[in-house]
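Technical annex B. To support the medicinal chemistry partners, we prepared a structural model of the target in complex with iron/sulfur cluster, based solely on the information shown next.
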Amino acid sequence: MRLGLILGDQLSDSLATLRVLDAGNDVIVMAEVPEEATYVRHHKQKIALLFSAMRHFAARLQDAGWQVRYYDYRQSVSLGFRSLVDVLAATVKEQNSTRQNKVSEIVLTRCGEYRLQHAIDHHWSDQLGLPVSVYEDDRFISTPEEFAQWAEGRKQLRMEYFYREMRRKTGLLMEAEQPLGGQWNFDHDNRAAYKREVPLPPPLTFTRSNTDQAVSQLVEQEFSGHPGAMDSFINGSSWATTRQQALQALIHFIEHRLPHFGRYQDAMISSAALGNAADTMFHSLLSPYINCGLLEPMEVCEAAAHAFHQGQVPLEAAEGFIRQIIGWREFVRGIYWNYMPQYAGLNGLQNNRSLPAVYWHGKTNMHCMKECFRNTFANAYAHHIQRLMVTGNFALLTGVNPQEICDWYLAVYADAYDWVELPNTLGMVMHADGGLLGSKPYCASGKYIARQSDYCRHCVYDVNSAEKTNSCPFNSLYWHFLQRHRQQFEKNPRMSMMYRSFDRMNEEKKAAIISRAETCLKKIDDL
Ligand code: FAD
Ligand code: DLZ
Ligand code: SF4
């Protein structure tokens, strides 16, 4: 008989492991273990979501006739298991001592993170004294090998071209070989600020099961030192933990959020004025489910395409959403597997500032940052523009060490796994990969935030100044960043205009801006 290990981010009925194994003969192993739960200080809600979703999934497998050996966190700890391989070793022993039919092989699906996959490929077979077979994770649309072939020989890797391949491969929003609407990408229509033209989406809450409640208690007791609050999980306003609830979230998204998704994709709004829906705008909130397997990327994209074909949503909304999944999501995964493990150590801009304490306590006078941290700690969520253009932009402009800021993003979001977080943070935000993921850094002054949000209207800082003592820190830090990295970026055609703007300022103004930036850098924790 074979043992099939299913990981916390592999909770899909279609998983290769389940297709390879035989419910009559083989045994599924699942385990909550300290090593996975603490390799970073995961947000409490991320642990609660995963443990609860794992328990519900194990119960579903049992109902479907599978034999499942499930170790909950307290069992793992009391049996002295730290890691998944400890669990497997003990389960092999247990099965071999109780059955005539001995364990002949360990089976699993390629895992999401290099850290674990490396251990599986290089150590597990020796540690367990058994063959370990790893099957491709075909819930993704492309394989790491296909990406490597596509990337080979290209001078620059651009998501847009990879995305077109994925459109062709999936046939989503295609008519023969041509994109529907005659255009691959409608991104230029997706830049509006939110002026309350349409109401924000209604809330969706989930009924909490006994399992959710037991897990919440466990997390409060065992992970009290981890960041984040549990309230929105406990009251059901944050995360789904079953396949059925995740499908409810998908339906809610298609009906209430997708119609306006593209248009307001880059918008941000203060929550005090509009309640909790402001924290999510029209984003889908589906990433935690897609990443842990409760929803599959193709079914989510097919639902969006179907809504377009039924006339429920405009083409630019469906295309914009599908691009995020078969474009960005697949592209960053390809980058990850193509360039790991070297990728994780890159520091192209040689940034060495320690992560400012504000990233953990969230207390600051900068209203935009305060809003993003509040959302992050309350819900284990922030939408893409909050991550990229506020907290990410601040880390870039202040020169935070990329590995430290990556660990932060990996910890605080319910959807965070190394394969998707790392390229987004190290590549897209920090430009630490020398431009592999983006041709220029996404650096921006407070003007961008003022244009895309109402944050600046509620802030003590003056977004129209870069040099006054109460000037918006993003403004002076932006110019300081450009000056610090003049050599790398001055010749970049997409950035040279900014250098010319700075050079045209009079000397007194330039000096005042740089001096204000230096004060901000010295006093980051007081901003
Ligand atoms: P929506 O805006 O509704 O987007 C729809 C879906 O598209 C998402 O659910 C997600 O599956 C996919 N998607 C969108 N943008 C990206 C992207 N850039 N990369 C990969 N998939 C994308 N996403 C994660 O899933 N896990 C992470 O750990 C993660 N870390 C990030 C760190 C930083 C610094 C940044 C800038 C982005 C990160 N992202 C990450 C990408 C993106 O911010 C989240 O996928 C998105 O905010 C999730 O919320 P949503 O489901 O409401 O997304
Ligand atoms: C994120 C996570 C956490 C918090 N806990 C577990 C766990 O106890 N058991 C498990 O199998 N998986 C967990 N995960 C998800 C894993 O970290 C993830 O499967 C690997 O990093 C591979 O992507
Ligand atoms: Fe953020 Fe600056 Fe606007 Fe304040 S003024 S909200 S710090 S961008």
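Notes passed to the chemistry partners:
Residues 7-9, 31-33, 36-37, 42, 47, 50, 84, 111-113, 116, 417 surround DLZ (ligand 2) (CB under 6 Å).
The longest helix spans residues 315-339.
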